[in-house]
Structure prediction request, 472 residues.
Amino acid sequence: MLTKRLLACFDMRNGMVTKALQFQDNFDIGSAAEIACKIYEDQIDEIIFYDITASADKKPIDLATVRTVAKRVFVPFTVGGGIRNLDDMYQVLKAGAEKISVDSMAVRNPAIIEEGAKAFGSQCIVLSMQVKRVEKTERIRSGYEIAIDGARTYTGMDALEWAKRGESLGAGELCVNSIDCDGTHNGYDLEITGLIADAVSIPVIASGGAGEPSHIADAFLQTGASAAIISSMLYSPKLPRNYPVAEIKNFLLKEGIPVRPYLK
Amino acid sequence: MIGVIDYKAGNAPSVYNALKKIGGDVLMVKRAADLEKIHGVILPGVGSAMATMDSLNEMGIRSPLEKKVRSGNMPFLGICIGMQILFEHSAEGDVPGLGWLKGNVTRFDKNRVRVPQMGWNEVRFCRKHPLVENMGQSGHFYYVNSYHVNPADQDDILAVTDYDGDFCCMVQRDNIMAAQFHIEKSGPLGLKLLANYLQLVEGGKPLC
Prediction:
């Protein structure tokens, strides 16, 4: 049986892992390469890096860190942030990443999803979406709007419609990142995650809000999500406690959720 | 020395890194002449069957590779698309493959399961072989695939995985071996399998 995936997600700034609360107020945690290795040894299923220097400051993607991580981490590894065109995608893949995550840039230029999928295969293209709960209107029927640029700009686009369009353009996975839940440690936004997972046939990743293992179980038991992103609960010193991957997996197994077994 | 065929859409760097991690002597194969320097060859793969076949043709490597593997007995390991193109025909783009093994490649039914299959699934080994030695009866490996192979000869099947029923996820016939899952991205178990392949190439173990 295909197991549910746990993804460790790191925001990276100048080669350091940094943590934000609701997309603001960043503080540094440690070297990106070292944190990635540690979490790999701890048997995480996948790793995602968002290069926030490249996305926010319009700097080139930190390929040196991507290369270092790729030499030491032997689980799938996604890079996002600051990808502007097909050549950027090619550079990131050749540096050793398996997948590319596109977000704001794909909203501005949806054709990049199609072009990326055609050039490198759908499995390489993760469409990451910043979703915000809003009042339901004629235009935004799902009650969730798409934002871009670190939740600074609102697009007027319905999140559910954008998810479906992303799938039809060729995205291989959708990452549903809740602006409301991000950094709160109170659990994922199960409503929009479930809505999107039911509307598409590609895998959906729940993102934003995990603070304890029961939140992850909720996402897997109450929505059709195939994967869940965790970050703070793994390593952030701002939380009362952190959880090793083995403990999270044991909890999920007890809840009857299939996960890749932890190797002793 | 093990060669990793480096074509544009492939993920050769990941396979290279994994081989380096387990102490392998590795060469990125970019042209036919590189095949003369190696004792085992890995064809990694992401992307589509057609793009992979086109790349092999453009690199001028297809017939030299065929000669090395089919007449020269060089241990071949295909990964993902590198497994699918071994067969006679792929439904992905309706293209012929290399045809080294009999059978075809078909798509998972998206009305029944999410396509692509993406994530860690259990691989159950069907028989003994040096490539899967000391791996126990099963283990979890990382998959990204929308298509899977259907070997005509059941004896070619080395392992199966359940995704909308069992499908063949590893094959072995003589010196031709392949896996649908990403050996290079399957954590410690993947590295162990790759180490078995290295041993098989460099230790000169019999292939069957």
Observations:
- Residues 187-202 of chain B form the longest helix (16 residues).
- Residues 2 and 40 of chain B are 5 Å apart (CA to CA).
- The helical segments of chain B are 12-21, 49-58, 62-71, 81-84, 187-202.
